[in-house]
Design a protein that fits this description.
six-stranded mixed sheet; about 240 residues; about 40% helix; alpha/beta
């Protein structure tokens, strides 16, 4: 009995300490108060077997409308044609929903009749959605081996184009490719699309994310309930502000 009582007491103490020191955000997390930044969308959790719920589709739809509103009235000074809107989606660490958000947002914008491209700028992590029918990938485009037309694929049934990496690239090489090749790539892509949604590398993992964010017109930062840590979010936001 004494052993059982000590076990129960130890479990209670462990639970209290875990709750006290746990940095994981929950439903009560308010980014506007804690981070001092606007909350653009609160998207219900996605279930892999059924996809987004009706509430999820509605939240993504509101975010897409907001992106369209932010893009209205902007024209290129030389041509008078609206330039492409580059939307960079970042997160502090992996698995916080930015890739899912990028694809969902692109699908809704395509439903509005916009020409969209999802660009996966994380060269360290191969992209499972890369079109197998295309010859090159984003790494080949950045290095000058292939042209854009040889690397951009079509997302089946989604209505938007896709450009990503087929194979992982080592750290320094990836950063060098992004730093030297991304500006020209963005300039070229702007001529062919209305919205370019960039899935960036995790901000706290590699320097590439900050380089990519610097070329964006709109920067979205994702956090995931039950997964994201307050300290990670704070460090990443400090880097973005800097």
């Amino acid at each position: 009995l004494i052993a059982v009582l000590f076990g129960v007491l130890g479990a209670v103490v462990a639970a209290v300490l875990r709750h006290y020191f746990d940095q994981t955000i929950d439903d009560d997390f308010d980014p506007e108060t804690v981070l001092g930044t606007r909350l653009f969308a609160r998207i219900p959790q996605r279930h892999s077997d059924i996809g987004l719920s009706d509430a999820g589709h509605e939240a993504i739809g509101h975010l897409a409308v907001l992106m369209r509103i932010m893009h209205q009235g902007k024209t290129d000074a030389s041509s008078g044609v609206p330039p492409a809107q580059i939307i960079a989606i970042g997160s502090a660490v992996p698995h916080e929903g930015k890739s899912h958000l990028a694809r969902s947002l692109a699908g809704v914008l395509a439903g509005f009749g916009a020409r969209g491209l999802v660009l996966n700028a994380d060269l360290h992590d191969p992209d499972p959605d890369t079109d197998p029918t295309v010859t090159g990938d984003i790494t080949a485009v950045l290095s000058g081996t292939y042209g854009i037309a040889d690397a951009v694929g079509r997302s089946a049934g989604q209505g938007y184009d896709h450009l990503g990496a087929k194979f992982p690239v080592p750290g320094n090489i990836a950063t060098g490719l992004v730093e030297t090749g991304l500006p020209d790539l963005m300039t070229e892509l702007r001529q062919h699309y209305d919205h370019i949604i960039v899935d960036t590398p995790p901000i706290l993992s590699v320097a590439d994310a900050m380089i990519v964010m610097g070329h964006a017109d709109v920067r979205l930062f994702t956090v995931r309930c039950g997964h994201s840590k307050r300290r990670d979010i704070g460090h990443a936001m400090d880097q973005l502000r800097a």
